[in-house]
Amino acid sequence: MDSKQIGAIAAVAIIAVAAIAGVLILNNNQNEDEFKVAYLEKGYYTFHVAFDKGFYDDLGFKVKPVIVGGSGQDAINAVLAGDATVAATGDAPYVNTLASNGPDKFVGLCMYDETTKASAGHKWVTTSKCPVKLTPIEGKSATDAENDAAAEAIKAYDGTLTVGLVSGSTTLTTFMKWCMHYGIGYSEESGTKEKIQIKKFPTGGEAITALGKGAIDMLGGSNPIPTNAVDKVSGAFIWGDCKVLGEPTALVLCTTKAKYDANVERMEKFVEATYKANKWISENIDEAVKICQTKSSVKDAATIKDALLNSPIEVCWKNINGALFDAWALTAKLNGFENITSETFKNSCPIADKINAYEKIRDEIPETKL
């Protein structure tokens, strides 16, 4: 083989290698360009609107939704598994994940939906077959007096009630706090002598099925779980909610520290775009409701509008009402993390100063703007 042939073969080999390398580089760039947001279909209205109205279209990278089922913990699990870049979740899954991994491995990006009172979004449902006589709640939320009466009826019952809750959900911890508020004993273990035995389910649908079969006495959930339970289970009704706690809560965007460090600029652009989406929603409520009806599993316009109007939709990282981080520390404690403090959560957002400067955040939030 002469030198020209060798040279030609070498040239072809170089071109082939370059082509393969080019494909690999292209594929890697494509993967890097995909910024994936994991969230639940139910209730996560900010993202339904943001994607529909194109708020993430011109950031210089592709933003894609990753819809998950179950609870907000499933959104976080998608991030931990590498299937998503960031997760939108309730505060309990965020708190538990940070507590179990540490702030050096998991961080918050922003709170994007807040309230000064753990809103009535977490509701308790039972049926006419429940061994405790409870009064059905008329309307969307229970009064303090109605919650008080329900608690007294449960405490007077000579037996144990089984309550179904979605594993890892904010509602799970919120119900525990409801029990603590009234001095009602609860346990996650079977065969308990406490008034309440908590039974965990992977999804709200499975808890609803169990309620319908009489396998549990009550269930707790955020919409559409309570609404679906009332619609699907004969004799089911809402008997209480978490509003009585008067505790601040927030929905959270979060990610791993490694993903944040690798995408700092993109994370900041994404959070800013989310802020703009929330601002648009607050100025275009009726149109936002229509979008959410088509994108979310919650279809009732009044329910969606009530949710949008009763939760300020701003982007921040702050100790809402001077109590949020303490509430998060209690959530961590209830889940067995004793060494996590309110300061841990205060310092767990690397861009807190930047996002708090977007707009002056309200310290006092009206219970309703309806």
Low-confidence runs (pLDDT<50, min 5 residues)?
1-31, 361-370
Query: Strand percentage, roughly?
Result: 15-25%
Largest sheet: 6 strands, mixed
Helix content: 40-55%
Could you walk me through the main structural features you see in this protein, from its secondary elements to its overall organization?
- The protein is 46% helix and 18% strand.
- It has helices at residues 3-33, 45-52, 72-80, 91-101, 144-156, 170-182, 204-213, 225-232, 257-262, 264-283, 285-295, 301-310, 324-334, 342-346, 352-356; strands at residues 34-40, 62-68, 86-90, 106-115, 122-127, 161-166, 186-187, 196-201, 218-222, 236-241, 249-256.
- It has a 6-stranded mixed β-sheet, sandwiched between helices. A 5-stranded mixed β-sheet has the order 2-1-3-11-4, sandwiched between helices.
Keyword list:
370 residues, five-stranded mixed β-sheet, globular, disordered N terminus, disordered C terminus
Task: Give a short overview.
With 370 residues, this protein is α/β, with parallel strands linked by helices. The protein has helices at 3-33, 45-52, 72-80, 91-101, 144-156, 170-182, 204-213, 225-232, 257-262, 264-283, 285-295, 301-310, 324-334, 342-346, 352-356, and strands spanning 34-40, 62-68, 86-90, 106-115, 122-127, 161-166, 186-187, 196-201, 218-222, 236-241, 249-256.
